[in-house]
């Protein structure tokens, strides 16, 4: 009886163990069919008979691919529509573009055209000068002496007057000899000699004229060479910088003085195609400037390039800013303040 009781207990234990193993296997199989979906397949797309309905797990994508969320189901869909003009149809109110730099209308760094020490300075930094004003002078004393000699050589008025007088005298003598020959008072030989004298006088006069022309040409060359020692302003502007000090030896091509016309500032703006149709030459536009005290400036459009930049789909628009009061420092960035209206996008 004890043996039977013990056997019954053993059989019952084995049965319980078998039931436990079956339940565990079924649970594992259900979990695998639920969560281990094939790569790239939504677990929620599995058939109901493949899943345990008691399993309330949230299905997800088992894949390395990025999850794509539907915009319509997103709680931020209204915000996305408000900033996406393609999806919402709302026109863009402002287009960010690269800034333009307001630079002086004209800037020139005048270089030396001759070698020598910087002899004289007639201006200081900050001076406003007119066009063709002599700003500085390189030592030109040798060139000046050469010019004086050339002028003296070119001044041959006395010699030319003498040659003219000889020609006039030779013509008068020839005329008298010819009159005497008609009266049989002079021979043909005398007529030939008088004609030769006149020809020689005219040749001397012609030589004197040609020599004077050569001397004048040399004088002009010396005059031009002398001017290379002068540093002149190419336009009306403000002296920005003087490079060498007085007395320093400068070389040909070395910068001497920098001058700029800051009465007008110019900037290149690269405007999107959608805004170009609203721009025209002569139009006044408002600019946003990177300046602490004057964030808004007025400018006038002076040129619109008739070419489109294929890379950026923009057009270069050149504007000018009035700065006759010299209140603006050149070099600040500017952008269009208003980049368009709703009508620009329809």
Describe this structure in words.
With 346 residues, the chain is of the alpha+beta class. 37% of the residues lie in helices and 23% in strands. The protein has seven helices and 13 strands. Strands 1, 2, 4, 7, 9, 10, 11, 12 and 13 form a nine-stranded antiparallel beta sheet that branches.
Shape: elongated
SS content category: alpha+beta
Low-confidence stretches are 1-5, 31-94, 340-346
Q: What is the gyration radius calculated from CA atoms?
A: 50 Å
Helix fraction bin: 25-40%
The helix/strand series, from N terminus to C terminus, equals HHHEEEEEHHHEEEEHEEEE
The average pLDDT is 76
Give the total of beta strands.
13
Layout of secondary structure:
Layout: H1 2-35, H2 77-83, H3 85-88, E1 100-101, E2 103-111, E3 116-121, E4 128-129, E5 134-138, H4 141-154, H5 157-182, H6 188-227, E6 230-232, E7 237-242, E8 249-250, E9 255-272, H7 273-276, E10 284-289, E11 296-304, E12 314-322, E13 333-336
Write a concise keyword list for the protein shown above.
single chain, Elongation Factor Tu (Ef-tu), domain 3, nine-stranded antiparallel β-sheet, four-stranded antiparallel β-sheet, 7 helices, 37% helix, disordered C terminus
Would you summarize the structure shown here?
It is built from 7 helices and 13 strands.
